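I am still getting used to backbone structure tokens and would like to learn alongside you. Label the sequence line and the structure token line clearly, so we can match residues to local backbone shapes. Would you write everything just below, so we can both look at the same thing?
***
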Amino acid sequence: MELKLAYFRRIGILLLTLAVLSACDELDSEVRLLPPAYQNVDGDALQAIFAERSGVELTVATSATRMSALDALTNDVADLALVENSASFTPGVRAVLPVYQSVLHVIARKDFKPRDTSQPLKGATIYIADNSGAGHKVLEVVAKRQGLAPDQLIFVDSPDSGDVDFILYFGPINPDDPAWYRPGYELVSLEKRLNPQSEFDRDGVGYIIPKMHAAIIPALTYDIPGNEEPIVTVAANTLLVARSNVPVRLIYELTKTLIEQKPRFTAIAPHLFGDINESFDPLELSFPLHAGTRFYLHRDEPGLLERYAETINLLVYVVFLLLSAGVAFVRWRSHRKKDRIDTFYVRALGIQEQANGENTQELLAQLSALEQEAFQSLIDEKLSANESFRIFTDLVTRVRAGL
């Protein structure tokens, strides 16, 4: 009865453990995403694909308002975010996938006139969309080349807060929805005649900011003033990144869904998902790959047994040889011990043949010495306590009785 109770108790504990793990698994399926600014995408349609194919529930990280993507991740108010590949490595952040190319869009007030043509940013009011790290880096480098200190740049938190001179937006080229544009502004090319360092802004920035390169927005891409001509600018790949402690299973399913369902995502937002692929070079990324992505990308590689099949075969062959050699050694040693016991047989029979009735005591002493020598050899493992040794002891007993 007690055994049955113990059995059912163990079954109950097992079921309870499985239920708890399942509940935890459901709770862990929610992932907080900090979406890019000025991207009017049908979030319900995107979530429907993830829910159908992966069970991952994407929610908006509402508490990360006005925070940079990296700050949102490191402060644990978001699990996923989009970051330009030009960003510096940040502990605790891992790359998931490159998703699209972010291009720098600069718009300036049409009536803006710099106080000093050699320092056009001096005294200018600037808004950087989405608090982009790449935007800040570009401005920092350009301002330094103009001889300006960082505190000489004036930043605002909203494009609609008073008279903003410049609006910088790093994002994909999307002519259908330029939500970052404001009336009264025009797109500005880095090769603008009034730019005193146009060649550096076009080609030199990439040498100072890794992973950033020159780019061109073709003429008439946007129905925006200034784009009547090609716009020379800079660009960088944008990465989907995650906190390193987001569960591996979730990132695996997320990566799998993004890659395998790319046509469906592209139909919803081609400018955001058109560049997704699994043939990218992880060494070109500013962040290490998340373990979940790495497991998905290596899913078709040979398993452990397949990778080391030849080595395993060699080890099996060596083990077989060692076993064969061991068996042969045991047999040789056993045969050697058999040969030694045979010499004791011969010596005992020799003592028996020497008996003539007058040397009995001397022969009994020899027989006792022979018996003692045999037992000492047995102790020293020079003989085996097997049937051959029993035959020897019987022989000694018979010879002694005859004497």
Notes: The chain has 13 helices and ten strands.
